[in-house]
Amino acid sequence: MPADQVAKADKADKAAREQEELLSATFTPKLNDNIAIIDALLGKSADLQQREFRLCGNPDFPGVCFFVDGLADTLVIEAILKALIVFGEDLHRDPAAIPSAEELRTTLLVNASAKTATRMKDGIAAVVSGDTLLLVQGMKEALIVSSKGWKDRGVEEPSAENNVRGPRDGFNESIRTNTAHVRRRIKDPQLRFDPMIVGTRSQTDINIAYIQDLVKEGLVDEVKRRLRGIKIDAILESGYIEELIEDAPLSPFNTIQSTERPDKVASALLEGRVAIFIDNTPVVLIVPTFFWQFIQAPDDYYNRYWVGSFFRCVRYLALIISLVLPSIYVMLVSFHHEMIPTALALTIASGREVVPFPVILEALMLEIAFELMREAGLRMPKPIGQAVSIVGSLIIGQAAVQAGLVSPFMVIVIAITEISSFAIPSYSSSLALRIFRFPLLIASGVFGLLGFAVVFFALLLHAMSIRSFGESYLAPASPFRPGDQRDMAIRMPIWMMNERPDFAQDSQRLGENQMPQPPKGGTT
Amino acid sequence: MNMKLKMQRVSQQARTSNQQSKFQITNGMFIAMMVNLIFVKAIGVTQGVLARSIGQDMWITTMLGMFQGMVVIYITYLVLRKTPDLDFMSLAQRLLGKWFGKLIALVIFAFFMAGFGPVMLTFVYHIQDYFLPEAPLILFFVAPLLVGALGCYYGLEVMARLALVGMLFIFLLNVLIIIGSTNEFDIRNLLPVLENGFPRTFMASLNYDTDWAFATMLAAIVMPSLKNAGKIGGTTGLIGIGASGLLTMIWSILEGAVLSSEVTSQYTVSCMKLARNAHIGTFLQRYEMIMIALYSIPILFEVMFFIYATSVCATRIFGLKSNRSMIPIVSVILGTYGYWIVGDHYRAINYLEETWPRIALPIAFGLPVLLLILRLMLGKKLNKQS
């Protein structure tokens, strides 16, 4: 390692050691010493506020409170100070006897959450989380009073997971609001939210949610083990966690489900799965995950089972089309045109008459053009994005066909493919399917049926080999689990889905004979 | 005590070298693996061979072959019944020592290597002749071997699950061929029955025996991974051979009744002729590509299992712990051998009809019987050891 890098590393080590020493210090009765340590640790940061006061109005008991402006609610802080300065005078008749932190907490502070702290580390963590740290001269301990009060985004409908029937609320960036959404839906005392902090610098709050008597034995421990194993400076979004705990880190398949919908999380918990809430993101992770869940939508369960099942089948069709339609078209037109019915073959041939490119190139050009338009439409401000989509899809598409650069049939194929990919409810997995489409397309265009079969089966084998937190990714199709087929290809009526999925601890979900049986001859 | 430890080590080796220490296959998977192995070649090229030797009675020869297969698979089960955690190689090692175990591993390795010729012949002549006549031959070896090696690398669990999907595809394939062929079905083409007499028909069934031979050798290797192999191994094996026979007979009956045995006998890959002939209505005049897509999982599974079986045998021969290191080596060996066989059409057909039965049948019939005799003779020794 070069000398300058060694020096840099030594300096960083030294700074980290010093910080660790300061953090491990305990609060002392000397107020100034405590303030000096806090200053050394937090510096003179613009958002850090330091407010002096006199406990019980007594000049012998100077005190100071620390809080972060913007994170803490100033009204709460004012109420705390009022209690300490004004009301304290009545309670402590002997002004010479300094009250303990515990005494203040139990007799003066009416806040819902207040606790004493002895270690500097706890005090600093509280301040940077939005709580208020109170220190008084002569007091051996500090007081931490909850005063979190920053501006949250309101509860809105998730933009990427729309539904027609069902709840409209979505998660936001506050972990506590998000856990409350789920608690409102499941009032079972067995519902647990185990806290954890990840990220040495971001100190991101994480909650592991599960229903104690439903979750498979060992699953929560495994989730915790993986989360504890994360050594990272900061977690800025759930994607960080996802990539650090997934089973198949090199695979393009998503082995962890993510959602912004509380009803989806509640449903997953009731199936015996585990949800991971991460502060500062509306996206909650769910494990274990099965491939087929990406095809399922909440509407399947909110609409009647006939409708739910039909649209689920439509989505399966969309999955197949979005994955293989361009490859099959290219393969047939390039190598196996004798397989196309004659009338159709003639139509395709007449459309391709003026196109100077091979079919594979034509397909790749259109696919790439579509990806460009999609990406541009996504990044641009909304009104311009719509304009780009219209220009791209209508004007450029039409012009390309008229100029003889692409055949009309190819435009139709790619358009159907792209529409199908949008019919898949999980946006992240529809992106993965887009990635798979390209090797399939190239293999089909170069080697025909053989290329298609090889890439397709390599993908299938890979998907079969993947696990998500111990469960086979393609279950319950492979391995085939007969009991779980009630909610696989089609969605059976609710009154028939009397058992939870195979991996849940407690299987019974419904009582006996739940099929509605109205009295014969109408109501009496 | 030493002997006991040694025997435990042998069982453990049987499990670890097959990558099956944790995973146990279900009876459904076991049946599916057998059906996949038998079906591909049985409908692909065997029916043409049968038509050439026995005419319209090829469905009877298939049925007779199926019964013989059921007997042999039950013998295989009897060999392993009392020691269900052992495969043929481990059992042989227990019976007569390390070198006998290696010898049996070598015999099974030779069986699968020799069998790879007909398997690749089936694969290549289906895809190259009917779909990609201008593509170089090497491509038809590299592609399936790559997929096969990948599946083999993922282990027995993934292979067994793929076999289940393959079995579903086989059902769909049969449904499609029945729908597409019933219009031309003429039962008179199957008459007269037993025209060549029973003895000749029975002798012709030896050609189908070479197909179920794959399944008995599969059982010889994979049976220890079957859940409750000691109890259900026999029934499962019988169902596997029976189901394969019935699924194959659908093709032999259709080929005889729709194409006639004369036409069937003119083709190396007679099933493709039947598939080309099938049509649904007037718009869908040809859909053999859909059928070949359904056929591709079983055939790729077959290639995969051959790599797996030879790699496990090679692992035993060289005393290695895991078969993974042997996968690329055996893939190259199998590929080279298969290329040599398939490269020359006349050699390939001669090998299929003459050489391969001479290799397959003695091993398929002989090995289970030999081990059963040894087991009966040395049963006390085995019981003492366990």
What would your notes on this structure say?
The complex is a heterodimer of chains A (524) and B (386). Chain A contains 16 helices and twelve strands. Chain A folds into three domains: 3-145, no CATH class; 175-289, no CATH class; 303-472, no CATH class. With 524 residues, chain A is an alpha+beta fold. In chain A, helix 6 packs across helix 9, helix 11 packs antiparallel against helix 15 (408-422) and helix 13 (359-379) crosses helix 16. With 386 residues, chain B is an all-alpha fold. The radius of gyration of chain B is 21 Å and the shape is globular. Chain B: Belongs to the amino acid-polyamine-organocation (APC) superfamily. Spore germination protein (SGP) (TC 2.A.3.9) family. Chain B: The chain crosses the membrane at residues 25-46, 58-80, 100-125, 137-156, 163-182, 202-223, 235-254, 292-314, 326-343, 355-378. Chain B: This is Spore germination protein (Amino acid permease). Chain B: Pfam families: Spore_permease.
Secondary structure layout plus pairing:
The complex is a heterodimer of chains A (524) and B (386).
Chain A: H1 3-23, H2 31-42, E1 48-54, E2 62-68, H3 74-91, H4 101-107, E3 114-117, H5 120-128, E4 132-136, E5 142-145, H6 175-185, E6 191-198, E7 204-211, H7 219-228, H8 238-245, E8 257-259, H9 262-270, E9 274-278, E10 284-287, H10 299-302, H11 305-334, H12 342-352, H13 359-379, H14 382-402, H15 408-422, H16 427-465, E11 467-468, E12 471-472
Helix pairs in contact in A: 6-9, 11-15, 11-16, 13-14, 13-15, 13-16
Chain B: H1 2-16, H2 27-54, H3 58-80, H4 88-96, H5 98-130, H6 139-154, H7 156-181, H8 198-222, H9 229-259, H10 261-265, H11 270-277, H12 288-318, H13 327-343, H14 345-377, H15 379-385
Cα radius of gyration of chain B in angstroms: 21 Å
Number of helices of chain B: 15
Q: Residue-averaged pLDDT of chain A, rounded?
A: 88
What would you call the structural class of chain B? mainly alpha
* Overall morphology of chain A: elongated
Q: In oligomeric terms, what are we looking at?
A: heterodimer
Secondary-structure arrangement, i.e. CATH architecture of chain B: Up-down Bundle
CATH homologous superfamily of chain B, by name? Amino acid/polyamine transporter I
SSE order of chain A, as H and E? HHEEHHEHEEHEEHHEHEEHHHHHHHEE
Note the gap between the termini of chain B.
11 Å
Percentage of residues in helical conformation of chain A:
40-55%
Structural class of chain A: alpha+beta
* Strand coverage percent of chain A: 5-15%
SSE ordering of chain B: HHHHHHHHHHHHHHH
Write down the Rg of chain A.
Answer: 30 Å
Per the CATH scheme, the topology name of chain B is Amino acid/polyamine transporter I
Helix content of chain B: over 70%
Low-confidence regions of chain A: none
Strand order of the largest sheet of chain A: 1-2-4-5-3
Largest inter-chain interface? A-B, 27 and 33 residues
Count of helix runs of chain A? 16
